[in-house]
Amino acid sequence: MTAGYDFGFSEHFYPAPDGLQLYARQYGMGNPGLPVICLPGLTRNSRDFHQLALKLSAGGPEPRRVVCLDYRGRGRSEWDADKSHYNFLTEADDVIAACAALGIVQAAFIGTSRGGITLHFLAGMAPKLLCAVILNDIGPVLELAGLADIQAYLSLNRRPADFAEAAAMLVDIHGPRFPVLGAHDWRDMADAIYRRIDGRIVADFDPAIAAQLIALDLSKPAGDLWTQFDDFAGMPLMVVRGEKSSLLSAETVAQLVARHPGMAVVLAKGQGHAPLLHLDGIGETIASFITANAQER
């Protein structure tokens, strides 16, 4: 692996409200100031944020404590026997439980894809937790083309023989939308998505989670989250959009700016859904945004 996923953090297990055992990585435990909490995408996990967490916790003028969560059914968190619990409200409750278990009363939150949707709900459920919000390639409107792309690659169910083959598979699937990535970036992505279990390289999530999205009927109009988005009013907000994203449109971003004056917008050039936040100075932009908005509300 090229990113060194086994160093720079401590591991913590904590109970969900229903008793399920959940997992978090913490970087820069002793760092003062406003902490940062990172929420991954649908089938992703805390490893997605490793390089960004190292930047935010060990670099720049104000290193911060960074917490990266594995939702239930992903990474090192337990799988849920009741698959109906893989939903936004339960996962939002799990984030609130993580903050309580780790002694966090307020933080800057970074939500990638599904993590950003979870933040839409947290803005109404626990607004005092959110000091600043970064939405990574997600908003209140999900483009059907983007959902269809996700359905398509989750349906492939390809099983790589090793991590090199896993990286090659990711290039086949996502390469056209991520021309900026190099070979080491694809290998890093493979290390984040896959894990060796019982001698096999497997995607690191409960298959029931993918099955939920695969089962969506995309012939019907999708709902939106504008009501929930309005709960971000008064909060510092940044949106990162992948230049080649099929899930978050430029038109939706323009509507966000009109609805939330002062919102910061970052374009991740040469990236699709969802951008890697440690590349091309995006991590440094996020660090500056958090520092500028780190005062308690």
Give a description of the structure:
The protein is of the alpha/beta class and 297 residues long. It has ten helices and ten strands. The strands form two sheets. It has an eight-stranded mixed beta sheet with strand order 1-2-4-3-5-6-9-10, sandwiched between helices. It has a two-stranded antiparallel sheet with strand order 7-8. β3, α1 and β4 (66-70) form a beta-alpha-beta unit. The mean pLDDT is 95.
Oligomer: single chain
- Rounded radius of gyration (Å): 18 Å
CATH superfamily of one domain, by name, is Alpha/Beta hydrolase fold, catalytic domain
Number of helices: 10
CATH architecture annotation of one domain: 3-Layer(aba) Sandwich
CATH class annotation of one domain: Alpha Beta
Low-confidence runs: none
Strand order of the largest sheet: 1-2-4-3-5-6-9-10
Helix-strand pattern: EEEHEHEHEHHHEEHHEHEH
Mean of pLDDT = 95
**Beta-strand proportion:** 15-25%
Number of strands: 10
Assign a percent range to the helix content. 25-40%
| Overall spatial form | globular
In this structure, how is the largest beta sheet organized?
Answer: 8 strands, mixed
Task: Determine the structural class based on helices, strands and strand pairing.
Answer: alpha/beta
Distance, first to last CA: 41 Å
Q: What would the CATH topology of one domain be?
A: Rossmann fold
